Amino acid sequence: MTIVNPANVRSWARLGPRGTFGLALLEAASENEDLFVITADLCTTSGLDRFRSAYPDRFVNTGIAEQNMLGIAAGLAKEGYRVFCTSFATFAAMRSYEMVRLNMGYMGFNIKLVGLAAGFGMGMFGNTHYGTEDLALMRVIPGLSIISPADCTEVLKATKAAARYDGPVYLRLTGVSGHPIVYQDDYEFEIGRAIRLREGDDIAIVATGTMVFQSLEAADLLGQHGISTCVINMHTLKPLDIAAIDSLMDKELIVTVEEHSVIGGLGGAVAEYKSCLNAFPPQLFLGIEDKFEKAGSYKYMLEKNGLTGPKIASSIMQRLGRPVFKKVAHVE
Amino acid sequence: MDIPELERIQKMASRMRRTAIDLAFKAGQNGAHLGSGLSIIELTATLYCGVMRFDPKNPAWPDRDRFILSKGHGSLGYYTALAEAGFISREQLFSFEEDGGDLPGQPSMNQNLGIEFSSGSLGLGLSLGLGSALAGRRVGKKYNVFVLMGDGEVNEGAVWEAAMAAAHYKLGTLIAIIDSNGMQSDGCNASVISTDLKSMWSGFGWETVTVDGHDIHSIYGVLKDAGRKPEGIPLTVIAKTVKGKGIDFMENNNEWHHNVLTKARYDAALLALSADKIRP
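Structure tokens for the assembled complex are given below, as produced in the milestone run.
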């Protein structure tokens, strides 16, 4: 079995989320005779070439037909299979949305829908290929679990956890190959249980997916300005770990950061919960602005939307009413 | 041909049609999809009385044939067949369209009642059937998967994604039945979106047969020995039917696509049924 050690962690990061996903699924299939995979013409892109060769009788390619993919998945799931379906996040979540609602939500089939290259992962492909509203759409469907891993090591763990889990899952893969590493060493991953990566007294950042690494970097920068920042990896958006939110009630500010629209995703989930409490800190929503912008490379789009460590730190400083730093400098 | 069997199916269809009217009346102001429930009755009667293998005492029997009512609004022709087949008691059947009940206007998945999948949103059943057929083939089972669709329903693009894949994967246990009553919500197919069903299905690589969808002899002839081939060409049966079949004032009348059956109309419907019986 794959061991989480520094060499493997580096190699998965190089491979990227999709390659690591394919690797994880190959392993999960060897442990699980009822695991089946369907893709909509994205076998190679999903890192599934080795899976297809190893388990040709547990693999179906529907061609470019995401709706049919979700239907076939339901038919197979009804007969006892746990079925992984892969496509780019935007198509997985949107082209087949009604099938997701009915087959995964209403009928509750054991389907794991994998949204590849969510957020700006498709870079210069542009807006048609950006998966920037998928969390909002998936969250509103009753019964779905939604997982958004922070780095490639977590992709591996989340994929295996999803394979073991009985029930419908949306697994959102953000980031590209050469993914920054959050987890160097092995750790315990449990669906629905957030991970506190950094302790801090003043404010808290709750992040998901690629934004976990960026938030850690922001926390470092904020620390240099004397702002002690707690960082939570909210790898599961649904069910939301409300105990983790409860633990942040003494903070001056809660910041949510996601590579997703500022509407309806992680920020929305945290805000919905918080607003029911009697007293809670204000919230700063960081994410993708509510508009379509001109497309660009992955790095460019993150910069443009303020989704890098320095930009996140800067937005937080601004919100706190402290001077915005032009470049990193130590306060005292 | 086994004549007693055909007679049994015919009688079952007659009872189903009468029960469907009773159910629609019972549904009161909720109304019911009478037109397309009545058009499929000979099809479902033949499937459940003479063609499909199943065991109502063991609704999840792994070798059972699967039936998917993709056109979920045909529920009157489906629930009545499930009742005749022993999946649903008469009492349960008359919980049709009750608040919070198991038999809403469009079927809700319930294995104990023999309902394989939820349906109602059109165009989704064939994909579900593909999954069922692939699963059966993988474990060497030869159960058939029957998917009943409407001729308006096939306007949906998802149907054709599934049609394409079924031919590619050579699902010789998959049988699509099109209830070709020539009408859809907004009127005649031809006036809404004209289609050439036969050449479309053939073009997608399916064996295509046309039958009179109210002639039990023909339906039985086509379906009795269909499928059962793990590797083969999937079959489409285009069943020419009449929307609202059997009730003169409902036939080919789109007012009865979905409508409320008042007491007066109910009595008129029963009269039409008895008149139909004495027709030569």
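The first helix of chain A runs from residue 6 to 31. The domain at 195-320 of chain A is CATH 3.40.50.920 (Rossmann fold). Further analysis is deferred to the final report.
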